[in-house]
Amino acid sequence: MMDLRIILTIAILIVALIALLARFVGPNIFIGFRIGYTVIDDRVWKKTHEFCVMIFIAAAVIFYLLTMYLKDLLSMIALFISIMLISTIITLFKSVEYAEKITGFEPTTIKEIKPLEPLKAEHANLISYLLFVIFLLIFTYSTITLPQIVAVRFDLSGKPVAWQDKFSFLVSMLILASSITIVVKAVTYIGARHPIVFYSGLIARKWGKRALFLLTIYSLQITEIIIALTLLVITLYNLPNLEIPAIPTLPLIALLIIISIFPILLLYHKRTKETISS
């Protein structure tokens, strides 16, 4: 059986390979880093995907080296998700830089991409920081109270089936929470400075100009909440002096699905409210 570390490293390299293919294919509707800046100019497309190839090859090397010291599944997956998110954000910023240097346009004034005023989500960064502080409080409590070996995975009846050492588990959760908070900050910055990144004609016509931007923000914040709740539930379950009955996994999965669609419902409510106001 192939080592998980090798599988995830190959997955990152596949992203680099797809970017390399997209660089030679040119702007298209199927593959590549397809945002407003890259598809309106062939030179921006090529430079973006050349950089994308390099950043994801570097990400694969970094991931492989770091996971030499990680033996558990959760830590590897947490690191993999974080590296993929951060590499994508870096590529996005570089794409914007190439677009401004090569084409010389200002995102909020050029005729071709109007009407795209700067995108803002009220209190998005403040809410994200608050959620991260709540996570850190739970993290501190977990650091103090968790035993050295932690039950981290459960079967459908709620009984533990996998364990992890305390340090690796806490580091994994911290990596995930920190990465999401950084991505929220990056998304709000890009929305304000380069709104075309979040523009989609079909979604904008149906849900409003801020739809994709707000959906991204809401989804990331929901993810922050899920990470904090996951840490809290696992911590409480593993407390030696606290007897918690096994909770069936299926209801928890159903609850996560409901929570996952909440950003769409919130966006729909906001859109309906804006329509009534106008």
Describe the fold and architecture:
The protein is mainly alpha-helical. The chain folds into two domains: 1-104, no CATH class; 109-278. It is 71% helix and 4% strand. The protein has helices spanning 4-25, 36-39, 42-66, 73-103, 124-145, 166-193, 201-207, 211-238, 249-277, and strands at residues 149-154, 160-165. Strand 1 (149-154) and strand 2 (160-165) form a beta hairpin. Helix 5 (124-145) packs parallel to helix 8 (211-238). Residues 107-115 have low confidence and may be disordered.
Number of discrete helical segments: 9
Strand order of the largest sheet: 1-2
Q: What is the CA-based Rg, rounded?
A: 21 Å
The SSE order reads HHHHHEEHHHH
Mean pLDDT rating: 76
Helix-and-strand structural type: mainly alpha
Largest sheet data: 2 strands, antiparallel
How many domain regions?
2
The dominant shape is: globular
Uncertain spans: 107-115
Distance between the termini: 60 Å
Quaternary: single chain
Work out the helicity level. over 70%
Strand residues, percent: under 5%
For the secondary structure, the number of strands is 2
